[in-house]
Amino acid sequence: MSRRLVPGCLVLSDWYRSAESKEFFSSILYKNRRKHFGLLEGPALPLKLSVDTVSYKIFVCGKSGVGKTAFVAKLAGLEVPSMHHETTGIQTTVVFWPVKLRENGRVLMFRLQFWDCGENAIRRFDHLLPACRDQADAMLLLFSFTDRSSFDDLFNQLARLSGPENGMLKLVVGTKFDQFMHTDVTEKELREFQQAWAVPVFRFQSSVSGVSQPALEDVAPLLNGLAEHLWNQDQLAVSLQTEVGVC
Amino acid sequence: MMFQAGAVQLLCLTASSGVPLFCRGRGACRQLPFSVIGSLNGVHMFGSSQDAQLSSTVTEWGRVLWRVYHESITLIAVSSEEGASELYLERLLENVFSCMVLILGLDDLANIKNVERLKRDLRSCYKLIDSFLEVPNEDVGDLTHCADCLIPQEPTILQECLDGFSQAAESEFGCLLVDGKIVVATEKWWRLAPQEVVLLSFLVRSLGGSSSRDYPVFLPQGSPNVPHRLLCFQLLAGVDVCVLCGPTPSLQKVERELVCRFWSPLIDCLRICVRLKGRCFPGTVSIPQGILGLLLINRDNSRALCSIQGFQESAQSSASFSQERRRELLRQFYTLATTRYFLAEPQGEKHRALTEEFQFGFTHEPVQCYLVTDDCKCFGIQTPQYQCFVLTTDSVPTFALRSLATRTLTALTTQTAF
Ligand SMILES: Nc1nc2c(ncn2[C@@H]2O[C@H](COP(=O)(O)OP(=O)(O)OP(=O)(O)O)[C@@H](O)[C@H]2O)c(=O)[nH]1
Ligand SMILES: [Mg+2]
C-alpha cells in the first residue's frame, strides 16, 4: 500500500452531521441509541433511499488488555466493559455505517464485521488465529497509549505479517487515548513509526460512557477512516484487475 | 463488621497449599482480608488433617460452605444474605467449578503445574462465573439444575429447522435459545448432562451483544479434557442458535453459508418467540386467574419452565410484585419445598447431604405443600414426573390453592409437549 490517503479525500468525513444524512443514520439508531442487528437483520431504509451494502471482515488484534473488546463495543454502541474480562475465543460484532463518497456523491452502507479474539485464547487454541485471518479484508493492530510494551510489540507484528502474500490492509489504532496524560508513547515516536511503516494510525478512546446517546462523533472519525481505506483498497484491486485485463 | 449484610463471597484456593487463586463477590462486599481467607482455609485444612470433613457452618451473620474438587481446588462460599440457603450455595459452588472446567479443562485444574499461570488463565472464567453471581438471577437453572425452557407456539418447524441446520454444520448438538432459555434443541443436546445444558445456556447468555462466536469449551462431564467448539450465532436481538462442533466447519463458513439460508424463512416465527419472553409459554394455554408466577419442572428430562409475566391480574398485584420479586419468591419456595419435603433427586444419596435432619423422621413422602405469607401464597405439587410451584396473591383463598395448582399443572402438561 504505497498510496497515502489524506483523511476525507474519498469519503465526506463530516457527512454524519449534515441534515441530508439524517435519514440514513436514523436507520442505524433506535430511540436515539445505536441499534443492534442480529445476523438475519439489517438497517431498513425507505425505498427511495435504498443503497448498496458492502461487507468487510476486519480482524482486531493486539496484546491482552489493550482494549480490543472495549474498542469494538464502543464502535457498535454497546456497553463498554469497565472491567477487563479476557475474551475467550472469537467474538464477532457487526457494525453498520453509512458513508457518502466524495467523488460521485454515492451513499454506501458499510457492513463491518469486527473479529475480536482474546490474546490468551489465541495462545491456548491453535485454530483461532487462522480463523480470524482467513479472508480478512483488513487488520486493525491495537496498542495502548498506557502500555509501552504493546507499542513495541507492533514492530514484531508488522514484521511478521509483511510476507509477500499478505497484502491485507493494515491500520494501527492507539487505544486509551483519554489516558494521554499517562502515556508511555510520545507523539514523536508515533510520527516516526507512521513514517517508517507507512501505516495509518488512529487515536481512540473507548472511555466508559453510558449508552444513552448515540455519540456518533466519538466513532465517526474511525469508522469513516476505516471505510475510506477499505474502499480505496477495493478500488485499487479493481484497477489492478483491469490493467491486467488490458495486457 | 467485616461481612456486610446481603453479600456473597466466593474464594478459590489451591487445596494443597492454600494459595488464593481468585475471589469474586456480589453485593456490598469488599475483598476479604488475606488473614480471613487464610483462617477460612485453615480451619478446613485442620479438619482434613484430623480426618474430619468440614462442609458447612452457620453463624449469626451468615453461612460458609467448603468444597474440594479433585483434591486440587478448594472453593469456599461465604454468604451473609438473609435466607441464603445451603442448597443455593452448594449449587453455586458446583456451578462455579463447572465454569472453570468448561473454560480451562479438567487437566489444568486437577494437576496444577504452575500456580501463577493458572491464576492468569482463571481470569478468563470471571465473566461466566459472575453471571452465576448476578442479581437478580435471570433464570432458575443455576438452582434447579434443570434447563430453563421457553415453549414456542410452533415447536415443530423450529425443531426441523434446527435439526437441518445442525446437520449441515456437521454437528449433532444444536440448540436455539431466546434470552438464554431453550426453545428447541437436538436430541443429542438433551442427552448432555443436565448441569452442562444449564451451563451452556448461561454461557450463551453471558456472551451477549456479539453477532457470532467461536468459543472453545470443555464439557465438565462429557468431555472434560478434550475441547469442542461452541459456535454461536445471534439471529435477532436475544435469539441465539448454537452448535457444538469438532475442528470443522469454520465459524465463517457456517455463518456465511448456513445461518441465513436456514433461519431467514423463520424470522417471523422467531419474533413471536421473543414476545413470549417472561411468560415462556404460548398465550393459547390459559392459566387460572390469581397466579403471579409459576415454576414447572419435568423431572424425567430435567427441564424447567419459569413464568413470571403475562398473567391476568389486577393493577395492584402487577405493581407490588416486580418480575424480580416473583422469581425470587419462586426460588425461595422451591428451595424450601425441595429441601424439606420433596425429594428433588430420586436417587437420594446426594440429596441426603443437603437435607436437614428432621424429615428423615417422615415415614411418607409429601406430595404437596403450601406456604402463606403476609402478601402472597405458594403451593407446590409433586408427581412422579413433575414438580409444580405456583405463586399467587393473598386474595386467593388457601383452600383453593390446591385446585388452582392442579389445574395449572394439567393445563401446561396437556396443552403443550412439556
Ligand atoms: N480509560 C480507558 N480504558 C480503556 C479503554 N479501552 C479499554 N479500556 C480498559 O482496558 C481494559 C481491558 O480492555 P479489554 O477491551 O477487555 O481488553 P482486550 O484487548 O479485549 O483483552 P483480551 O480479551 O484479554 O485480549 C478494560 O478494563 C477496559 O475498560 C480506553 O479507551 N480508555
Ligand atoms: Mg477482549
TrEMBL record, chain A:
Keyword Cytoplasm on entry: yes
Location in the cell: Cytoplasm, Cytoskeleton, Cilium basal body
Organism expressing this protein natively: Erpetoichthys calabaricus
Family statement: Belongs to the small GTPase superfamily. Rab family.
KW GTP-binding (keyword) present: yes
Encoding gene, per UniProt annotation: CPLANE2
Lineage: Eukaryota, Metazoa, Chordata, Craniata, Vertebrata
Chief place of localization: cytoplasm
GO molecular function, one term: GTPase activity
GO BP terms in the entry: cell projection organization; exocytosis; protein transport
Full protein name: Ciliogenesis and planar polarity effector 2
Annotated keywords: Cell projection, Cilium, Cilium biogenesis/degradation, Cytoplasm, Cytoskeleton, Exocytosis, GTP-binding, Nucleotide-binding, Protein transport, Transport
From TrEMBL, chain B:
Signal sequence annotation: 1-18
UniProt superkingdom: Eukaryota
GO cellular component: cytoskeleton
Residues covered by the FUZ/MON1/HPS1 third Longin domain: 290-414
Location relative to the cell: Cytoplasm, Cytoskeleton
Keyword tags: Cytoplasm, Cytoskeleton, Signal
CDD domains, sorted: Fuzzy
Pfam families linked: Fuz_longin_1 (PF19036), Fuz_longin_2 (PF19037), Fuz_longin_3 (PF19038)
Cytoplasm is among the record's keywords: yes
Residue span, FUZ/MON1/HPS1 first Longin domain: 9-131
Record domain FUZ/MON1/HPS1 second Longin: where: 171-263
Name this protein carries in UniProt: Fuzzy planar cell polarity protein
Lineage, top ranks: Eukaryota, Metazoa, Chordata, Craniata, Vertebrata
Underlying gene: fuz
